[in-house]
Amino acid sequence: MSGGRALIPGLASPHPIGAGLPAVYEENEFVHRFTAAFDEVLAPVLCTLDNLAAYFDPGLAPSDFVEYLAGWVGAERLAPNRREAVAGAVGLHALRGTCAGLAAQLRLALGVEPEIEESGGAAWSTEPGGPLPGSAEPRLLVRLRVPDPAAVDRRALAELVRAVVPVHLAVRTEVVGTHGEGGGDGDL
User: Which InterPro entries did the record assign (predicted)?
Assistant: First the structure.
């Protein structure tokens, strides 16, 4: 967290300590000044606790705390819209390791609809020993069609894809222009 929580000069405590002291201390000015110092230090803590539910709502939380939440839910790689990434983290985790999950992550992170080709498949047969679907070599191709292929940070793309696909897959990425011009590709 980037230190956004700090003392706010002049912030009044919602629960001043001096107001809860026994009557014998009511007239003692030193005691009121002494407890006022604690009130100034504790006021931001008490205000935060009074609004704690808002800190866990990505739509209401302070920006620096949203960064903290993104780390909690594994959405720190999904820039630029961290609030949306944190809010949708549970749904993304349910899809993790699938083509739909990878596509959702790339849409959220890059704003681009990816083309994904995978080698796997699922089928059933009434006869044992039938041919298996897909290919024997597990692989994945991720293709992005963007207006300017040179503007795509391929290292960030590779890190994002590698973070969300199963480790046993050979992954290949391609970034091509929307009009077919090639922008290069790479293996991960």
Answer: Tail_protein_I, Unchr_phage_tail-like
Q: At 183, which helix (H) or strand (E)?
A: strand 182-187
Looking at residue 139, the DSSP 8-state letter turns out to be: E
C-alpha closest to that of 69 among 50, 90, 48, 49: 90
Q: What share of the chain is helix, strand, coil (3-state, %, to 5)?
A: 45, 15, 45
Q: What is the largest CA-CA distance in the chain?
A: 93
Q: Strand 115-118 relative to strand 139-146: parallel, antiparallel, unpaired?
A: antiparallel
d(CA 42, CA 36): 10
- Residues 75 and 66: their CA atoms lie apart, in Å, by 10
Give how far Cα 49 sits from Cα of 7, 73, 116, 158, Å.
14, 22, 45, 40
Which residue stretches of the chain are H helix? 29-50, 52-55, 63-72, 82-87, 89-94, 99-110, 154-164
> Can you tell me the distance from the alpha carbon of 35 to that of 16, in angstroms, rounded to the nearest whole number?
8
DSSP 147: S
Cβ-based neighbours of 43, under 8 Å, separated by 6 or more: 8, 11, 12, 13, 14
State the Cα–Cα distance between residues 66 and 60, nearest whole angstrom: 9
Q: Sheet of 115-118: strands edge to edge?
A: 115-118, 139-146, 170-177, 182-187
Q: What are the per-10-residue average pLDDT scores of the chain (188 residues)?
A: 60 87 89 90 88 92 89 76 86 86 87 88 74 76 91 87 83 84 55
pTM, rounded to two decimals? 0.63
